[in-house]
Amino acid sequence: MDRNQLEQEAMRQLNLGSQDGALRAYSAILKLDPRDRRIRQKVGELMLKLGRPIDAEKQFREVAEGLMKEGAHRAAVAVLKQLLALRPDDPAIQMDLAECYVASGYANDARPHFDMAMRLWIGAGRPLEAAKAARRVAELSPGEPPLRLKVAELLEAGGDALGAAAAYQEVAEEYRRRGRPDEVGRIAEMALRLKPDDLPLLLDAAGARVEAGEYKRALAHLQLAFGQAPRDPQTLDLLSRAFEGVGQADKALKVLGELARVAAERGQPALEAEALRRSLRLAPGEADLLARLRVAEEKITRMERRLTQLALAEPTTEAELRAQVRAEVYLRYGFADRADGALTEALAEAPDALGLLAAKAEVEATRDAAAALVTMERILLRAGTEADAVRERIALVRLAAGLEPASSQSAPASAAASPLAAPAPAAPDASGPEAKGDRLAAAGDLVGAVMAYREALATNPLDDTVLGKIAALRSAPRAAAAVAPPEPSEEDAFADFGPLEDGTFAEVLPDALDEVSPLGDVDEARSLVAVGMWTDALAMLEELEGLEAAVLRSQAVRGLGEVSRALDLLREASNDAAETDPAYPEALFELSALYTATGKHRAAVRLLEELRDLDPGYRVGEVEAHMRGLQKLLK
Q: In this structure, what CATH number is given to the domain that contains residue 528?
């Protein structure tokens, strides 16, 4: 028979009620055309009716694979559903069905199958495969960081250290974007298990510990961070806060002094001033700190001063006022080109308006320093009594743009890399304004000395030496001479924090690091639990205390099949713990799972509700899935 005759024969056999006869006819068609998926699907359906599920599964798989290769995902869904009815425990089928749903535009239908695939692979001990499914779930719910955290945990359990570390860092960045520093620190500590020397992770973890008031645990991370970056501002800032938190004010002062020096070298006067203010809280009235703070604040004032703040920039007509306001609004919202256009248009009507020129110069300073300097030179010619302030602004714009000082001022160019760093101090020219200021100060003419020093600042508005002399004159108006703040001694005040191999860090706080040494054991035990090494994990946890260790101990006991004992252990530990304990949310989640496993569904629901109230952001996807499942069990 030809194909048409065979298909007619199959239909005739079905009408006669002979499924075997129909199967023989359809099988003969497949021999003529093995790629006919419609006939192959009918063959699979007949095999299933005849009690041959294994043969039917083979036929359905071939049909589904062919449809997916051709991109016929909607048609593949129907076949995969038939296949899933035969093999509901096959994670690969769950994944294929989920992917077909996504490709067909039914993402909501896909998620339960991705989730089931993940759980089946976890049960089969294949965490890397489970991670693929978890990642797809996370991609379908980008607003749920706990799902991405699950990906990282599975990658770690599967031995993909680099992938897991990258996934942990993605989660930490998401929490940082959401303003959750506590979660950033928690995730950073998880990632540190894989990258223990990563400086950003160490600082994230230390910052969270400092914010939580856990200063000793912060020191454990800062020891490593300090060894890698002893002059990093963030490291120094956290280190000073940790020392202050544990009562080591003298050490905190030394670190703050180093932080202020680093900030000054890098041209960051705001950070320098903050470090000095904190130092003064620890050492009130310290003359040297006060003098240095005044210098830093003077730097900030000069850096923030704009030509538009001068009296010469006051508008003289309503049209000028409107143009200035319009330009200011444009600039505030980042439209510098529109601000420049508005001012250029207004200057066409009033080309000599100093207020408009000042506004245009400041707009140009954000885009084109050379153009700004040309406009400022025009203003300088008519600045009158405010000429010195204009010169200071010109000098600062030059420094910010990395340009040499104007030739008329004949000052050495800064060799510093930072655009706001001041040039290295040099001996004042005997005939220059700084030397003149020194002579006037020595003669007791303090007002004249300040005026001379301000003239010197026209060359370099951030000259530490001149700023220090002005600060000294202001703090001691009756002094016979102005003396610059003392330079740091040859012996670095921070030397006793030297290289870690000297052992000096541990001297900061005796026993501080010893008290947190079990942290490594807890992390190691967690990794053993993650891969199912229950007995080894219990041995490691035997001597450890705290709720975090109790949670891991309970998980290990449950893994050995002793669910009731695991429940008793964790229930007792959580009763003794405070709700502020960082491990408390995890304990509630685990207790809920244990109550569910022992059939106490209402108790499990109460714990999940308590967890929602305590920490709404904790493992949102899993908590919601668990809650939905419990509600079905309670119906």
A: 1.25.40.10
Q: Which residues contact 430 (CB under 8 A, 6 or more apart)?
A: none
Per DSSP, the three-state class of 146 is helix
Element (H, E) at 287: helix 287-304
Residues 31, 33, 36, 41: what is their CA dihedral angle, to the nearest 10 degrees?
-10
Of 395-399, 517-521, 576-580, the one with minimum mean pLDDT is 517-521
Helix, strand, coil abundance in the chain, percent, nearest 5: 75, 0, 25
3-class SS at 117? helix
Residues in the chain: 635
pLDDT for 165-213, tens place per residue?
Answer: 888 888 888 888 888 888 888 888 888 888 888 899 999 999 989 988 8
Q: Which of 158, 181, 204 is the last residue of a domain?
A: 181
Of 66-75, 277-286, 586-595, the poorest mean pLDDT is in 66-75
- Residue 230: inside a domain: no
Read off the DSSP letter of residue 246: T
Phi-psi category of residue 503: left, alpha or beta, with phi > 0 → left and psi -120 to 50 → alpha:
left
Q: What's the rounded Cα separation, in Å, for the pair 131 and 454?
A: 65
Q: Give me the number of domains the chain comprises.
A: 3
Last residue of a domain, one of 152, 181, 210: 181
Residue 114 located in a structural domain = yes
C-alpha to C-alpha distance for 388 and 530, rounded to whole angstroms: 69
Asked, for residue 235, whether it belongs to a domain, the answer is no
Angle between helices 518-530 and 145-157 (to 10 degrees): 90
Q: Do 471 and 535 fall within a single domain?
A: no
CA separation for the pair 596, 519 (Å, rounded): 30
Q: pTM for the whole thing? A: 0.53
Tokens describing residue 49: 């009716």
Residue 57 has pLDDT above 60, yes or no: yes
pLDDT at 504: 41
Q: State yes or no: pLDDT of 473 exceeds 50.
A: yes
User: b/e per residue, 213-241, with b = 16+ CB within 10 A?
Assistant: ebbbbbbbbbbbbbbeebebbbbbbbbbb
pLDDT tens digit sequence for 297-316: 887 877 777 888 889 989 98
Q: Following DSSP, what letter does each residue of 346-369 receive, concatenated? A: HHHH-TT-HHHHHHHHHHHHTT-H
Above 90 in pLDDT, residue 242?
yes
Question: Would you list the DSSP string of 407-441?
Answer: GGG--PPP--SSTTPPPPP-PPPTTSHHHHHHHHH
Same domain as 523, residue 459: no
In contact, 486 and 473? CB cutoff 8 Å: no
Whose CA is closest to 586, among 522, 531, 533, 532? 522
Residues of the domain holding 109: 3-181
Q: Does residue 117 fall inside a structural domain?
A: yes
Is the same domain home to 462 and 559?
no
Q: How far, CA to CA in Å, does 83 sit from each of 24, 56, 66, 130?
A: 22, 9, 14, 21
Residue whose tokens read 């506004």: 359
Please give the structure tokens belonging to residue 20: 């075997």
Output 526 or 472, whichever has higher pLDDT.
Answer: 526
